[in-house]
Design a protein that fits this description.
With 170 residues, this protein is mainly β. It is 12% helix and 39% strand. The protein has helices at residues 15-18, 72-80, 158-164, and strands at residues 5-6, 13-14, 22-24, 45-51, 57-65, 85-88, 95-99, 106-117, 122-133, 145-154. Strand 7 and strand 8 (106-117) form a beta hairpin.
Length: 170
């Protein structure tokens, strides 16, 4: 079972259905100029990059094997994403929910983190998810695959985004 998601902010949706994005064969660090160059987490696999139609965002996607609720990927990006980026805090930690909006139904364990760029209209969202078969509640995923998406958005109204997602960005 393979799931690839695009996150226009927090919504978990199909890339091709929602945003009209295009897949690129290169990895994040070799994508067109004008975008930040973020590395993949070590030992990541199935690395793909996407660009939203219109160039409003880029997405780096890959998979990592890790036992829930491992946060090594989040810690990796906290160390990589430095000034002028500012890490934002929210009340959201790991979330768990069933998704019956598609077939087959799935259950998601998800962690989402945000950063804003203090010098431009850029925002980063990091989504780390485990996807299990069936929408029934469970405390732990039924697999070890973390689906990781790092999305950089351009043209973001920083104050509106901070308010909308109830973020605290020092």
């Amino acid at each position: 079972m393979k799931y690839r998601f695009l996150l226009p902010w927090i919504t978990v949706s199909s890339c091709m259905l929602l945003a009209g994005c295009s897949e690129e064969s290169s990895n994040w660090s070799t994508i067109k100029s004008g975008w930040s160059k973020w590395p993949e987490y070590p030992d990541s696999k199935n690395i793909q990059s996407y660009e939203f139609t219109g160039g409003s965002a880029k997405q780096l996607s890959y998979e990592v094997l890790a036992t829930y609720p491992d946060t090594s990927v989040a810690q990796f990006y906290h160390n990589e994403i430095t000034e002028p980026w500012i890490s934002c805090y929210s009340e959201i930690e790991w979330q768990s929910f069933g998704d019956i909006s598609q077939e087959p139904h799935i259950f998601i364990h998800q962690l989402i983190l945000h950063w804003v760029n203090d010098q431009s209209e850029l925002m980063l969202a990091l989504s780390i998810r485990y996807v299990s078969e069936g929408s029934e509640f469970r405390n732990n995923p039924d697999n070890l695959t973390q689906y990781v998406d790092l999305i950089e958005y351009k043209g973001v109204d920083r104050d509106k985004a901070i308010s909308e997602f109830k973020l605290a960005c020092p």
